[in-house]
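User: My instructor asked us to take a sequence, write out its structure as C-alpha cells, and then describe one feature of it. I'm not sure where to start. Here is the sequence I was given:
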Amino acid sequence: MYRFLCCLALLLLALGSGAALAAPRCLSDCSPRIGIVSAFGAEADILLASTRHRRQWRINGNLFTTGELAGNKVVIVLSGVSIVNATMTTQLLLDHFRIERLLLSGIAGGIDPARHVGDVLVPERWAMPMEVYWNGDASLPAACGKTGDIGCLGLKLATGQDGQPLPDYRPQGRPSGLFLRENFVMNAANSPRGEYRFDYEADPEMLAVARAIHPVLDRCGPREPLQCVEQTPQLHVGGRGISGSAFLANPDYRAYLFETLSATAVDMETAALGHVARANSVPFIAFRSLSDLAGGSDFREVGAFFGSGLAETNEARVTLAFLEAWKKRGAR
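Assistant: Let's start with the prediction itself. The C-alpha cells for your sequence are:
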C-alpha cells in the first residue's frame, strides 16, 4: 500500500507540474532498479538463485522477478528467444517498473575468429544486419531516383566510414542484392522527426566498470565436467555485436559479417533491447558468453558445449562480478 501511495503521489505531482512525461514508470513497482533480461531459463537460473528477497509479478503471462542481486535492486525477466520477444518484453519491463538501467545477460555465437567457446564478450555497440533492402539485380537500390536513395520508402541504407552503402552479402562470391539498412527510432529527444541508426551504443559508464573487472572463467561445463574447451575463456570488452532473426550456423555469412562489420558475436535479442533502450532513453549493456561459433566449427561440437552449461556459467559469473563492481562504484 505504501508503494502504491508513493507512486500515486509522484504521478499526481508530475501531472500538476505539467511534467507527466518525466514521471517514473511504476505501474507495478516504484523502486529504481536495474532491469536484467535473458532469452531463456538456463541463462537466468544462476542469477535468480543468487537473488534475495524475491517477489514475482506476472504481466501478459510474462514472469518478472524483483529482488536484490549483488547489492543492487533488480528485476529479472525471460524474454524468450527472438528479436520480437526481446522487444516486447523489454518494453513491458520499462512500462511496469522503474528501470534506470538495462542489462542483458545470455549466450551467443562467436563471429570473430580470435574468440573461442566460453569467452564472454561485452560489445560497445549492437546492430541488426538482417534489416535489409533486397534488390532484384544486385545493384545499389535507386528506388527514389538516385543511386542509393530509398528515402521515399521511409528507409535508409547503412553506410561505412566512407559514407558509401555497405556491400551486399555475396554467398560464395555471387551477388545477392541484400543491402544492409539502418533502423528508424524515435524518442522524446528527437521527436517528431526521429532518426535512423545502424548501431545502438552500450552505456560508456557501464562499459568502464566492465573493463575493470577480472572474473575467473571456467573451462569445463558444470553439467558435463569432462566437456572442456582447450583454451581458458577470457572476458573481452569492445567491438560490435549483432542480432538477427536467424539462428546463425553458416560459415559464409559469418565471414561476411566479420569482414564487413568487424562483428564479434551474434544473438537474437540484444540489438532489439538496444533499440527499445534508445527509444526510452535508458542506458544499457549486454554480456554474452559464446556457446558456439555461428558456423565456424562442427555443429556437433556446438551441441556438446551448449548442453554442458559452460557458456551460461561464465556469462552469469561476469554479470555478477559486474553488478558487485557497480554497487561498489555507487557506494563511493
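For the description part of your assignment, you could build on this observation: Residues 132-181 form one domain. Try explaining in your own words what that tells you about the chain.
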